[in-house]
Design brief:
single chain; alpha/beta; five-stranded mixed β-sheet; four-stranded mixed β-sheet
Amino acid sequence: MIKKRTWLKNSKAHSVFLMLAVISGFSLLASSASAGVYEPGLTERLALFTTLDRSVNEIIKFIDTDDPQRPNYSSIYYLGADGRRHAFPDISTYSSWNCDYPDSHVIRISDLSQIPIGKNITYRPGLHLVKFQSVSTVYLVQPGSLLRPIKDEATAQRLSGDNWNKQISEISEAFYTDYVIGEIIDLQNVTQLQSLNLSPTSSNMNLPG
């Protein structure tokens, strides 16, 4: 084995050989990894809820702190109609849905690990104004995880009143890709949005399906 390595060092084909070896090895690993991953279908995922004594629309929490009454919002999930658990990424998103932390159901880590992970829960649609921490643009949240930029202060004032700038919630940039950016809202189209109501708390948490 040592002699073979010495020969390769002196060979002009060394780099080509290593390149082929790396490419071949990577291909084999990729193939075996993809072949070994099993994704249960919707029927199986929903059946698992029943097995674990869980149900669609249930909010569950995994206690990973010393105090069971102290919320850790990254450990709270919504069980969707797609048979997946969807994380509330932060307190702001969680609070927008008026969820009650003590009423959420505790789940064991062994059970939680069996439930496939889905998309994060996004901010509750309605007349909510949000912005990302390092971005000055203010958005209105609409169904489908859609954020519509508000063009200017006059539009924001017409939409949310004189205190509009005190009604803005911040979202971490880490969750930017959870949202879709839509068309700009200006004074020409703001009137049709003023009658928006918050989507029901008992709905599908703004998730498709």
